[in-house]
Amino acid sequence: MSSATLELKPIPIPAVRLVELFSSIQGEGILVGHRQIFVRTYGCNLRCTYCDSPETLKESGTPPLCRVETTPGSWQFRTVANPVAAPDLTAIVRGYLAEPHHSLSVTGGEPLLHAAFLQNWLPEIRALGLKIFLETNGMLPDHLRRVLPLLDYISMDFKAPSATGLTAAQTWERHRAFLQVARATHVYGKFVITPTTTEVELDSVIETIESVDTAIPLILQPVTPFGYEPLPTDPARMIAFHARAARRLREVRVIPQTHKMMHLL
Q: What is the predicted pLDDT for the residue at 47?
C-alpha cells in the first residue's frame, strides 16, 4: 500500500479540525492504565495497513462534525462543528477536570500536522495543571521542534515500510531525525508487530534507537485486528522479537492494546 499525504486547506490558528474529544484510560505504551483526556485530530500523512483510527483519514477537506463526550467517562456524545475554536476546546477540557486525569493525550491521525495550533493552544492546557502526551508517527521532526517545550511525553510509532509503503531510506532517516529532537523529553518508541513484520524491519528499529540513545524504551505491540483479518500474532514470535531487541536496548516491553481488551474508547 502506498503512502499519501492529506492536503488540508489552511484555517486560522485559533481553531483546529478534530474527530473527537473524550475521557478514557490509556491502553498503550508506558502510560498504560492512566486516565487521560483524548483530543483526536483530523488528518494523517500516512496510510498504515493496521490503522485503528480510519475516521481520521477521510479525504474530504474538513470532517463535518466533531464528537464531544458530554460528561467524562459517560460514553454519551454530542457533536460540534469543525473547526473547533481554541477557547471552546479549552472549556471542554476544563469541564472534564471535574474528574482527576493524569494528562491530556493529543492523538490522531497525525497531531503534528496541527503544530501551529498546538504551539498556541497547549500553554492553556498546561496552565490547567495537565501534563501533555503526544502520540505521533515520528515522521515530522521540524513540526515537533515547534511544540517540544510544551510536551511531557512522546509516544513515537515506528512505521515499517511493509505497513506504509514508504521506502526504507525515507522511513528510518526520518525516524532517526525525529528521535534526535524528541530525546529532549520523555520519549519512547512503539513498534506494531503484524503478521508481515520482518526481523530486518525490527533490526532497523533497533539500529535507529541505538544511533540516538539505547536508553529510549521500545514497546513491541502485537497488532489488534481492526477492519481487516490478519493472522493471529504468534506468542512465540513475540518472545523471539523481544529477545532480539532486548539484547541491544536497555528497556524493551511487550504491551498489547489493553483498551481494546476492555472495550474502552
A: 63
